[in-house]
Write a structure and sequence with these properties.
Blueprint (H helix, E strand, L loop, with lengths): L4 E5 L5 H6 L13 H10 L3 E8 L2 E10 L9 E8 L8 H16 L5 E6 L4 H10 L2 E7 L2 E7 L6
Antiparallel strand pairs: 1-2, 2-3, 3-4, 5-7, 6-7
């Protein structure tokens, strides 16, 4: 099976597929509903949702947030991230997050780190992010633990 991950804007063509995606029942307490993620973008221009696609099939949803007025280290966030239940455990999550990080860095070459937050009880997500290179911080946002991915800077 060949995976062809694309990170696409949420549009009229894919919004229904994005809205239909759900995580497993035991994950629902950790992940915002996709319609809530898409709606948030309507009122916050810094918050951009993306469909995670394998070819033409929507397999997940992510949101990226760029906050230019924050400190350099605190400007780039992935506040929402999910892979649909039917697509979990097949490599989509890792490949998609790698593509999202690449997208952020290509759009913002000065990016020092990519940040996200996770519910502390969501041990599976914490392990997943650690395998990708995220590290836990002592910082909390509301009730969630902040994790950072440090961008490797090419030395001249």
């Amino acid at each position: 099976m060949s995976i062809n991950i694309k990170i696409m804007p949420v549009t009229q063509d894919n919004i229904r597929a994005c809205a239909r995606l759900e995580v497993s029942e035991d994950q629902k307490k950790f992940v915002a509903r996709n319609l809530a993620t898409i709606a948030w973008a309507y009122v916050d221009p810094k918050f951009t949702p993306y469909a995670i696609c394998d070819g033409d099939t929507v397999v997940g949803l992510a949101a990226v947030e760029y906050i230019p007025e924050n400190e350099d280290y605190d400007r780039h966030w992935v506040p929402r991230y999910m892979i649909g239940e039917d697509y979990q455990g097949k490599g989509y999550g890792r490949l998609a997050m790698e593509k999202i990080i690449e997208m952020i860095i290509s759009e913002h070459p000065d990016c020092q780190r990519v940040r996200l937050s996770v519910v502390p009880e969501n041990a599976g997500a914490i392990q997943f992010y650690k395998k990708l290179g995220f590290v836990e911080t002592d910082e909390m946002i509301e009730t969630e633990k902040v994790m950072d991915y440090f961008v490797k800077v090419n030395s001249l």
